[in-house]
Design a protein that fits this description.
Layout lengths: L1 E5 L3 E7 L13 E7 L1 H11 L4 E8 H13 L3 E2 L2 E3 L4 E7 L4 E4 L8 H10 L8 E5 L10 H8 L5 E5 L2 H8 L3 E4 L3 H8 L6 H14 L1 E7 L5 E4 L4 E4 L12 H14 L4 H16 L7 H7 L5 E3 L1
Parallel strand pairs: 1-4, 1-9, 2-7, 4-5, 4-6, 9-10, 10-11, 11-12
Antiparallel strand pairs: 2-3, 7-8, 12-13, 13-14, 14-15
Helix pairs in contact: 1-8, 8-9, 9-10
């Protein structure tokens, strides 16, 4: 089984405007809501690919109910712990020239709610895979990902998609895959990278720090996968960018899809690229058919 952990989910409110002016009344042209959270996105894409997973984390209030109902509608399994405070609302604003995000305030999580979450981790067995992704609510210790990993059986593939100090600490536990984007890896090391060689060296540092594999997404410039003894470079297929939101999570889901099918890691990488790109070319998360339609355009080369 694949488990996805979303400690700090949200209801994402997407709005589209021609332009945004401060201190003025702005008219929204398009608007829709979706359950937000990196792990939730991964699980929903996996379900679109007919792969079962279980969402773990915390939800509360009317926004939490919205998330749970949406997952039920989409056939995604969940074992969220219900908390007293409401799940946050994020705003994703897109204009003709920019994309802007406003992150809502995280709910406080009590010790009782925290303990219930760890009880749910007992379902995880050897051979399962788990995705730890996204931010950690301020009411929880930033070491929570470490606590989760230490509570798991040894034969578990752990995929991490987070940033900053949380990532730095979790690498010490030894993980299967980490997936930063270019901005995140530059932020992590406090450096600016202009070439593939510089990005690869940074990725190798992440491997040395404890990640068996490193997948670095570079937006319109493609992506790089660094394994134990190989480096792969992937392109971006042709398509019109609609929204980058959820593209990285879809890339993780596509990669997991390949692993679940027992494909070689370079094939899993190919699924990841097609999945991430397909979401970027869609309003919402990719479907299996849209992902499959891009596969023929994906070109991977060894470096």
């Amino acid at each position: 089984m694949i488990y996805t952990v979303t400690l700090n989910p949200a209801v994402d409110y997407y709005i589209g405007l021609d332009n945004f002016q401060e201190e003025r009344l702005n008219q929204v042209k398009t608007a829709y809501t979706l359950p937000g959270g990196k792990g939730i996105n991964v699980s929903k894409v996996l379900k679109n690919f007919s792969v079962e997973s279980v969402c773990l984390g915390f939800v509360g209030g009317f926004t939490g109910e919205y998330i749970k109902k949406d997952l039920v509608t989409n056939g995604v399994k969940e074992k969220f712990v219900e908390i007293k405070e409401p799940t946050r609302i994020n705003i994703k604003m897109k204009t003709e020239n920019s994309e802007t995000e406003v992150a809502g305030k995280s709910p406080d999580i009590s010790k009782i709610e925290f303990d219930r979450f760890f009880d749910n981790l007992k379902d995880i067995k050897e051979g399962d895979m788990i995705v730890l992704s996204g931010s950690v609510p301020k009411s929880l210790n930033e070491d929570i990902y470490i606590q989760i990993i230490k509570s798991l059986p040894k034969d578990i593939k752990v995929i991490v998609d987070t940033r900053g100090e949380t990532l730095r600490k979790v690498l010490k536990e030894g993980i299967f895959l980490v997936k930063p984007n270019k901005d995140e890896i530059q932020e992590f090391f406090g450096e600016i990278y202009e070439t593939d060689e510089e990005i690869i060296r940074a990725g190798q540092k992440l491997r040395d720090m404890g990640s068996e594999n490193v997948l670095i997404s570079l937006g319109k410039d493609g992506s790089i996968l660094i394994t134990k003894d190989k480096v792969y470079r992937g392109n971006v297929p042709k398509g019109q960018l609609i929204s980058s939101v959820g593209a990285g999570d879809s890339m993780v889901a596509g990669f997991l899809y390949g692993l679940e099918k027992n494909e070689p890691i370079e094939t899993a990488y190919k699924y990841g690229i097609a999945s991430g790109s397909s979401t970027a070319f869609s309003e919402g998360l990719t479907t299996y058919e849209n992902m499959k339609n891009l596969l023929s355009q994906i070109k991977i080369k060894k470096m």
